[in-house]
């Protein structure tokens, strides 16, 4: 028995991104950075240098996920298609909510490659901590905040999803009620992913707004062309068809520029909904849940780019219908021209056949004359005297028969042409 070349990779993929075993008190900084023009290999090398600067070890070449536990600091790096995430853990709370951790090198944020697209700061309170609700009110006192019991009541979460601080991170306060280590790790990871995927999903909103403006402009141009279709004069179809082709090319260009972004946004938002459902939220009286907040605040953005994609698709269909209508008109005009040309050729052919029919009489006379002369010459050369006179007389008597025979032959030859006519 032989092993498949990808057997080990398939087996390892199931355990490629495990949850960490975490406990309270805990402070977490989570960053999502776009790769931009850099390759994942370049980013991996720079993050590896950052790990070494923090006192850890360099990452293995080709790694797409790496977790390293130091004394009080833990580092987690994960690569995605168009961005990567870096999560920093420290077993200590920070009442001032500073966006840094002990043990990080000086200027550590400048060592991170890419552009920051989203991030979250999480603090996990121990089960023995009292006054957690008051802490949430004091932390988010300037804004409306949301919260719920999660993980079947094993924890409680509060946040306002507002980007603040040096790196504009969202702040989330978690109260550990009865979570074990891996359960806490799952909760932290899900909260980080909800924030990250929400931010990346919203990248589709700006292209959607631009698409709306472009589609509105193309809609007006198409409407003007459609109105003129019924007023077109013969010969003007070519210019109008060229204008429709230009509109179609512009619509396809817009679609090609945005289809990947809109598809990615849909996929990321689906992950957000999935991660929220995995929290198993139970509502706290007087507060919105995370699911309600996301549905009310993010769903309108989702409808925006979906509406943009639908408008673009409908525009393409309308252009195609108008182009087909115009092509039908052009084809009909072409068919009429071809029909006229064929009719003209048919008329010329008919005139030729009529002329040929009129010349049949002369043809019969000429053929009869030459045939009679040929036979007469033959008789005169082959006979003489009385037999010659008898043969000449019979030839003269048979002249009507010769004429009828020639007429019949000519009619037979021209019969198929007349039937075609």
TrEMBL record:
* Keyword Membrane (UniProt): yes
Q: Which UniProt keywords apply?
A: Membrane, Transmembrane, Transmembrane helix
- Name of a matching Pfam family: DUF3422
Q: Which InterPro entries match?
A: DUF3422 (IPR021830)
Transmembrane annotation, as ranges: 355-372, 392-410
What is the top-level taxon of the source organism? Answer: Bacteria
Give the protein's recorded name: Membrane-anchored protein
